[in-house]
Each structure stands twice: as C-alpha cells, then as structure tokens.
Amino acid sequence: MRQREGKMGVDGAATPRKEHQRSAAGHWLDAEAAAALAFPPRTKRPRSWAVNVVLVAFFMTVPPMVFLLGARTSAPAVWISSLRGGSGDGSVQRWSAGSFDKLLGGLLADGFDETSCHSRYQSAMYRHNPGKKPSPYLVSKLRQQEALQRRCGPGTVAYSTALEQLRSGKSDIGSPDCKYLVSISYSGLGNRILAAAAAFMYALLTDRVFLVDPSNEMGELFCEPFPGTTWLLPPGFPLTSYTNFSIDTAESYGNMLKNKVLRNDVVGDVPVFAYIHLNHDATQDDKFFYCDEDQRLLRNVPWLVMRTDNYIVPGMLLDAGFQEEFARLFPEPDTVFHHLGRYLFHPSNHVWGLITRYYDAYLAAAQRRVGIQVRVFGEQPDSPALLEQITKCTQSHGVLPELLLSGTDDPVMPVGRRRHSTAVLVTSLKSWYSEKLKSMYWEQAVATGEAVSVHQPSHEEFQQFGAKSHDTKAWAEIYLLGLTDTLVTTAWSTFGYVAQGLGGLRPLVLYRPENDSVVPDPPCGRDVSMDPCFHAPPFYDCRLKRGADTGKIVPRVKHCIDMSWGLKLVHNN
Ligand SMILES: Nc1nc2c(ncn2[C@@H]2O[C@H](COP(=O)(O)OP(=O)(O)O)[C@@H](O)[C@H]2O)c(=O)[nH]1
Ligand SMILES: [Mg+2]
C-alpha cells in the first residue's frame, strides 16, 4: 500500500498527521518544522515554564574505476591508476587497495561477511573526503555496545527473560544488565534516519540494547550494523500495539508524569516499560525527558519504547548527567551524526548498486563534484525565484562558474589541454530545476572555460509513503549527495541533513524565502556545523525549572542557521 504526500502515511501509524502543512505565511512546511512552529505545547505542568521561544577544489583526474575480479566478495575494489591531487595544484597520489581505510578509523567492526553488505567496507573508496576520525573512546564504546547487543539481543536467554518480564509487568525479574530501547522512527526517510541515530546515541549513553522497529522499510534499506546479532525487533513483541503509541498513550513518560502515575522527585517502584514520545508534537511533559532528574528515574525502567521523527541529540546534551560521557565520546561535538550515521546506516546491496552505478557513470570521472538538494513539494509550482536563488548562491560562493553573456565565445584553451570538469548532482522531486541548469551551462559559455554537466537520478514528483522503490531511490540520492565535494542543501530538510552528516560536509544552506516569489538576500549561508538541526527542542531550563532559551545553556548547543528556534551541536573552535 502506498500513499502520496499530504495524506496520512501508513508509516505514520496511529499518529494521524499531515506530512506537510501550510504555515501562516502559506509556505509548505515539513512536518516536524511545522510542528515546531506550533509551540507552546498543549499541557502545562506545575513547574512553571514560561516559554521564551527564540524566534523565530580540488584538481583531480579519475580514470574509470575498475574493480578487480573477485573484489566484491573479498578485498576492497581497487582504483587502478586513479590519480588524485589537492586543490588544483596538480599534485597526484596513486591509490591502491591498501590506501582505503575500510573501517573508517575503527568506527566499523572488522570481520563482517562482505557479500551480505557490499557498502559496509566499500564506502571508503567512494569518499574523497575521508571524514573525521572517531575518538578511541567512541571506538571502544561501540565495541562494548556490540558485545551488549550480542549478549542481550534477540535469540539470547537474557532477551527471553526480558520479554517474560515485560509480559508479566514486573520490573524486578529480568537480567539487571540488559535494558532495552526500542526505536520507532517514521515519516520521511531523512527523519527516520536522524531519529534512529539519535535513539542509538541515547542507547549508548544509557547502556541499553538498541532495537529498531522493522516497519517503514527500516529492515530493508540498511544492512545490520552489529556483528553476530540483529538490530531489528523480532515479531511477537508483547506490546502488540506499540506501533500505534502516540501522544495520548497512557504509558508515555509525559502522561505518567502529568497523571502522577510516576514522580521524578520521590524514589519508588518503576514500571516495566515506558513509552517515550518525542515526536514533533511532544508536550513539555514529554520533554522532561531532557532533564537530569527524569533521566535518573528512567534509568531503572527495563524497557523503553521511543517514537520520534526528530534529531533529538542536542536536547540530550542539555542534560548535565550526559555531558561528561558525551565529551569523552565526541571531543568534536559536531561529529555525532557523522560518526553514528556512518556506523549504523550501510545501504543494502540493492541500494548500493543504485549508488555505485550512478556514481561510476556520472560523477567519478569529473574533477569536482557538486551536490545541490532542491527540496520541493508536489503541489509547489516550478519556481523561477528558487532557480534564481540556486544560481545566485552557487555563483556568488564560487561553487558553480558564472555564465558569460549569451553569444560570448568560450575562452581560448591552450592546445592539448582538456577542460576542467565539474559534475553537478541535483536531487529533487521535480526535474525542472536541473533541466534549467543543464540548459544554462550548455547554451552559455563560462569564464573559467570549465565543462559543467548536470545530472539528476530521479524525479518522483510526489513524496510517497510505504513505497519501497521510492524509498530506495531517496536513500541512494541522499547517499550520493554525501559523496560530493561541495554541497548545497535546502533549509529545514532532514534529507539534506543526512547527506551533509554522512559526507562530513558543512553545506551552503538555501535560506527559506519569506515569500515564494522573492529571492532571499543573501540567498544562502554556510552552515555552522555538519551536525543536523533538532527541529522541536525543549524551551526549558531543567536546573532553574523555568522556561529558557535552550540555545544559550550549553556552549556546544546553539541555534541553527536555517531554523532559528532549532538546536544543533557546534564545535566551538
Ligand atoms: N528520490 C528523492 N526523493 C525525495 C527528494 N526530496 C524528497 N523526496 C521524498 O520525500 C521525502 C522527504 O522526507 P525527508 O527525507 O524526511 O526530508 P524532509 O521532509 O525534507 O525533511 C524523502 O524521504 C523522499 O521520499 C529527492 O530529491 N529525491
Ligand atoms: Mg521529512
């Protein structure tokens, strides 16, 4: 069953909602962003919280990549006589199988069967930007987490005991060292990926076994991240209606606080499970999750089921109790999604085929790759203003060359010199923008004389829900954007956030126009960090127990450039 955007998604389960809503200004909003606009939340709690909402180059010659026979099953493929140089300085470096760090600095565990997931160990050789190195502490923490997943995960005695505990409703009979976090992520693919990564971060910080709800294609788009076990919640989970949990679920942490079923200020029995509702529509009661004293209570609950469509990591960092561990795990705080995303999300073999065939056919041979993500919605007419915003942004920042006046000839090239080539990867639901760009760079010469080719893998027209081929294309395109050298993204889009995080890129962000027919001035700006923006943060200071600007509490958590009330992790330096 598939549905189009604007209707309730099958993956939306019992949280009936429109994927896109119109803002007061009449813009089509992404769901989570629209929800963030709808603050303050519905309920008020005894702790007063007066919400203070903060309003709103590279010179490179790459001959065709040739795979050695048998490379798919054993040694990583080799770029034969690929030449690589720095920023146009002509220096070259020969690549060989040994020069790829297939484990990404120890982020990935060795020893997986390579045939079941080609992308896991091949991805490094497609990345010109090798990315950041994980801290030794993060590497050891990931190995510990893998051991925990094997010891307590599905199929183990500990898992059966924990399920029994859940069925019985008694919180004291399970194995004390096996606590669980079931992550339900839904909505667009970008949201799902960010939400699952954030939930995993929480599992790492709280030593919980991390299991994901396999619906919404979560079981099909990605390989297993943990060796020797599964991250997918098996069928037969005792909380049979867990996929329908919503803001109204009585066992949600927020509702249990509100209804005084739970109290975070007294020591008492804890329930065997709690539902953590951190959707775009979460109330302040739900968002007490981000407070220290609430975490002390939740620490003892054996089973947590979390639903979110948001990148909640910056919210977790507001909790003083997590800050020390966080700093050890991520000395570079803006690399959380960069590392956890590359650790968790390996495209399945089918998607990897889409990615590598496209990359090898259209992007590999160019000396420079530019990604432009144009997030539009099905109902939106093709917009000359948005096209102008893209050209102004890319040309003023030197991402794409300026066009010469029509009728002007190409600059004279020295005999025997080939043109410098730039391949532009455009991703969009619509083809109009890339067709216009392609025509421009064919019909008009550019002062630099470089050859600009424009490519767009698909144009699906409408966002769809529950459609596998749609999701596989979306995942391939997000990943391809992350393989470019320079990235331009659209404000508010989780699709772009995932690409920038995986690629380790600080993109130029196309600002959201006040009015669809007016080009914002400036048209875009450089993002302050590669980490995604949390669209629906709390506006509450847990220590002072009152409303606060949460962009001013912790030095490493600041507001986003594309959404003024959103929060993101930044590197102070
Ligand atoms: N293939 C493809 N699908 C897209 C594109 N833009 C939007 N979509 C679809 O629309 C969804 C948008 O949701 P999401 O990924 O959460 O990004 P966001 O809504 O912009 O935050 C994607 O997951 C795709 O299903 C695109 O450029 N290419
Ligand atoms: Mg979305």
What is the tally of helical segments? Answer: 17
Show unreliable segments. Answer: 6-97
SS-based class = alpha/beta
What is the helical fraction, as a range of percent?
25-40%
Overview of this structure, please?
- It comes from Eleusine coracana subsp. coracana.
- Its main location: Golgi.
- InterPro entries: XG_FTase.
- With 573 residues, the chain is α/β, with parallel strands linked by helices.
- It is 29% helix and 14% strand.
- It contains 17 helices and 21 strands.
- Strands 13-12-11-15-16-17 form a 6-stranded mixed sheet, with helices on both faces.
- Mean pLDDT is 84; it is low at 6-97.
- Bound molecules: guanosine-5'-diphosphate (GDP) and magnesium ion.
- Magnesium ion (MG) is lined by residues 30-31, 187-188, 190-191, 494.
